[in-house]
Write a structure and sequence with these properties.
Keywords: Signal. The chain is an alpha+beta fold. The chain has two domains: about 30 residues; about 160 residues, no CATH class. The protein has one helix and twelve strands. The strands form two sheets. Strands 2, 3, 4, 6, 7, 8, 9, 10, 11 and 12 form a ten-stranded antiparallel beta sheet that branches. Strands 1-5 form a two-stranded antiparallel sheet.
Amino acid sequence: MTKSISITNIAIMIVAVVFAFMAFASMASAGNPHTNVTTIQDGILLDSEGNFLSVGYNTWGYNYQAHLFNGKYCDSYRDAAWCQDYKNDSLTMKWNDAWLANTDADGDGLLDRHFGYSSYIGSGAWLTNHISGEYVQDGKTYRWSEFYKIVAAPADAYVDGGFWYDANGGEIGEVIWGQFAMTEYIYNDSGTGDHGVVYKSPTGPGLGNL
């Protein structure tokens, strides 16, 4: 009798745990827009040129899974003719999911951009660029580097005089690529002596939603 009651209690506990897990999974799914997605690991997603994506770095230097680019400046543009003057310069880029995700949640077979938003505005997207190179002047070789922080403008921001401002009138940064603001710019040049921050947003050069 005691053994029978014990087994019954265990069965009830198991059923309760299963239902609790199912309820938790359902809530987690409802709160996560990326639950039903296609991943790079699935092997069917394409890049902008129609090539299948894979994890790790591709020929050009993009690692879409890790949200990274490491390579030459022109390689980031697939060695486009217009950027040949900069082909020896190095570029490192980092970005977040809102800028370019490593999944496809909208079913178009491509990595998502500003998923859940009609544009980048208000999406919290951000990108950092670190560019470096060298040049020869009067027989001497000098090195230079630039660093940019770029963020999508908030939904309630506005443009005035080429700069984005938040709803309270705080300066976010210079307009770049229409929907974005440059919140920080650092320039170093061993030939000119330039070194340090050229521009830093008064409202803070942070990333994501400001």
